[in-house]
Amino acid sequence: MADSNELAYLQGIDTLAFFRKLKDASLKEGELMPWQTSLSFDPQRDSDTNPTKDGMVTTSSAVETDFEVEFTNNTSAIADAMYDSLFDGEVLEGWIVYRKRQNAEGKYFAWYLRCTVSEDSNDNDPDDNSTRDVTFAVNGKPKRGWLDLPDSAQETIDYVFRGLGAVTDSDANGGGDAWTDSDAGTNVTPVDPNKQATLLKK
Fold first, then answer.
1. Residue 152: what pLDDT?
2. In angstroms, how far is the first alpha carbon of the chain from the final one?
3. Number of structural domains, the chain?
């Protein structure tokens, strides 16, 4: 892991939204929204100034958060849950996870919020994939923290290398071996089986 004091920039491709119905908190893990194309997170606080005899006095309102996720439309359960939230008022738990920012324990930096869908725009151009743009009404103030990614989520966003062989209980990677730094420059000439047999006889 990199030095915790090392400055690093964050990329949009590494910022991912996970969701779950609040009522399912004890039943299932938060799920990655498949095929996300954009995520907008915009906490803000309005302020106003009032003139007094001693000068201007500033007052601030409560924090309001704009939260929006765009994705290629799909048949996942979590995509369907967006409609349940919009039409039935289902409260969702949402996480914005930064998969390239970790603490010393290996946990990922994230925002946690509770929300309901306020708008779900669906575009269906004839020459393109169906897309959805979901806007959320966030309840209260989002919370910052660190979390572990469940194995299922880690596999979804960071799948391992697999070979061409069948994936079985005894060979989960289909005969493949993941690349390591020591593999740089590797190029071993394959041994001709006929020549190998001749050499063994000698």
1. 75
2. 51
3. 1
